[in-house]
Structure formats: C-alpha cells, structure tokens
Amino acid sequence: MSQPSLILYSDANYFSPYVMSAFVALTEKGIPFELETVDLAEAENLKETYSAISVTRRVPTLTNGTFVLSESSAIDEYVDELFPAPTFPAIYPLDPENRAKAREVQAWLRSDLMPVREERSTEVVFAGAKRPALSAKGQQAAEKLYAAAERLLGDKTHLFGEWSIADVDLALMLNRLHINGDPMPEKLAAYAEAQWQRPSVLEWLALSAKK
Length: 211
Hints:
The protein is of the alpha+beta class. The protein contains ten helices and four strands.
C-alpha cells in the first residue's frame, strides 16, 4: 500500500507553536511529508491561492490528497489515527483516560494563559528575543502554568509516563518563560530542556534557526 501524499503548510518563519506541534507529530510517525510555507506577514494566507486550500486560512493546514484539515490538535489526532500504533509510534497515550487528559492539556494550552503568550511570543523561543519583566497578569498566568505543570507531571519525566505530543506543547509554553530567563521551578526547567532535545523537536528548531 502506497503512502499518502501529505503536505503541511507552515508560517514562513517556522515560529508557530501550532505548526510545530503538527510537524513533530508527523516526524515522530516517520511518515514522509512535504513542507510548504505561507508568509503571514505578507497576508499570503488571505490570498486566493491559499484560501482555496484552507477553509480557516490559518496555519497549520494539512492536506492528504483531496482531504484538507486545519487546527493543530485536530491534525495531531488525525495523524495518530491514520497511522496507528503499534505499526507506527504512538503520539498519544494508549490508555483512554490518559489520552483524554493529553487532549485536555492541548486544549488548555491553546485557549488559556493569554498573558504569557502575549508577553512571551515565540520570537523568544525561536529567535532569541528578550522581553521585559512580566506584568502582574503575566506573573499570575505564569504561576498558574507552573502549578498545573507540577501537578500534571508529579515525579514523572513525561506527562503520562511515556512521551506524547502533549509534552511538546507543554514544554513550548514553559520555554516561552524559561528561555527568556524568567524564574521557574527547577524541575520544570529541566523538563522543558529535556523535551527540547528530542530529535523531532531539533528538526523544527533547525528550520526556525535558518530564519
């Protein structure tokens, strides 16, 4: 059986945490895919060529033949179901409850902690930008993040014992702060650093470093 022809559309700078999640998911599966870029600064996502592909006109968007899917967590889940374990590496926990919790973590990180996302953009993570001290709201959001991460991790090195795509998403949020030099519990800093050494993550970092 031939492999599907997959194309992942990314921002041109490779700074999107959401494209990163989808990129890591595909890379972990070991499935060949093409990477196409969309220059968001030039509003290429709003032009006819891309809008004809993506209903949301956002990145990431994944195409598989005539099938088109946007939103990173939806792409992650689709990829895991399309290329299931044990034939392919799992990117979500196999246990149903842990799998649901992984999805909860992903949804939470995408919908909450806005002060951290605003005050620590991914230019900090991928381009080495430095930002001033957090505002009161930013500090409150950071403390909320730390408390949740410590509770979720406990004594584990990964959220659910074995690595999952949710680990990358959580490490990305933590690294917005850690890479900027913001104070962080030692265990969380070590966790974020360890996740950043995963080969699939290093492949993404190499792309963003070129920009």
